[in-house]
Amino acid sequence: MTGRPSVRDAQPDTATRILDVAERLVQTSGFNGFSYADISAELGITKASLHHHFATKAELGRALIERYSEAFSAALKLVDQRGGDAAAKLERYVKLYEEVLREERLCLCGMLAAEYSTLPEPLQKEIRRFFDANETWLAGVIDQGRRARIFHSRGSAREVARMLLSALEGAMLVARPYSDVARFASAARQVLTGLAAK
Amino acid sequence: MTGRPSVRDAQPDTATRILDVAERLVQTSGFNGFSYADISAELGITKASLHHHFATKAELGRALIERYSEAFSAALKLVDQRGGDAAAKLERYVKLYEEVLREERLCLCGMLAAEYSTLPEPLQKEIRRFFDANETWLAGVIDQGRRARIFHSRGSAREVARMLLSALEGAMLVARPYSDVARFASAARQVLTGLAAK
DNA sequence: GTCTATAGGTGGATAGAC
DNA sequence: GTCTATCCACCTATAGAC
Questions:
Q1: Which of B 16-35 have CB under 7 A of nucleic chain C?
Q2: pLDDT of A141-174, one tens digit each?
Q3: Is pLDDT of B7 > 70?
Q4: Residue range A127-138: average pLDDT?
């Protein structure tokens, strides 16, 4: 876990490469849909070595959510820093999801939410934290948009935020079987347009 | 597969009881999250007997989607027959989802959509058919609402229908980790209200 | 940090008696 | 239609050498 080596062109360290492969596998096949053997085959290191880095599958899952949540928070900070009005921020937020779907993946936590009841309790807690963080950020943007009079939605900003999160997670879920990013983009646009309507 | 016996208080036949248990297990834990052993333990019949009724797990899955789709179509027919305007129909449509979530289940096909890439191709096709049927019904209701001037949404009726389906599937997905049906109901109301806005 | 080897369990599925 | 018994592949995880 020493992070990326400082020399140019160097590969990420082993733990990072494991997380990269595991993350893609969870996002495409689910936590119950992949095994250490899958990672082993792809990286060319034995299952025993994987256990050296992540002792149990639950611990691997916990590390995955942690990293994903941190990356998402960082992405939201970037969205904020690029400025623009609330509508522009929401469009960039939607783009984050769209890029995931383009690789035929689901949101990591959206996938894990489907498998929620089969997951260890610590993972369940982290999944809710991810959704909570997204709702909080979205609610802030909704507030910003209302103060600027560009959003005219009903209900609390928090409620609108939850609706947005739900709609985007669902749009990914439904679009993927059709391998159709446009399906997602269309649904997202519908929802965003609705926010501006009186 | 002889259907419900005609005598009063008689139990459903074995195939039906297997489907009932398997359906709940898929909706709560996913297709990759349950096993024949789980059904066996709950019904008190051996795994070998289960294989007599459904030779493979894929065949069991196919039967589950088929039955679920038929039940859903029947429910939509009832929604239509009870009449009312398009808004009333959509509210009853939302209630169908809400009843599923109340039992801490996801939509069967929503759950399977998450696991999509791990499923046999015949199941994948049936999942898309389920979504297609829902979109078609919803597009019809959207059209009805527009002709009656109670919906003022943008985009084609089909696009609005896809957005609705996505939002509802996603609202179930996100609400379940919180065991909070109100979260779903709130998101659903947000979306429906948006349809009426100009 | 990676390996070989293996434990101990569970997965879906089958054969054949009753 | 249900059972016992069994197969074999795969699962997560560990022990211990290098």
A1: 34-35
A2: 999 999 999 999 789 999 999 999 999 999 999 9
A3: no
A4: 98
Would you call A114 and B198 a contact, using CB atoms and an 8 Å cutoff? no
Query: Nearest nucleotide (C1') to the CA of residue B59?
Result: C12
pLDDT of residue A153: 77
Cβ of B115 less than 7 A from strand C? no
Mean pLDDT of B105-123: 98
Q: Give the span between the Cα atoms of A69 and A166, in whole angstroms.
A: 17
Q: Does A177 lie at the interface with B, CB-CB under 8 angstroms?
A: yes
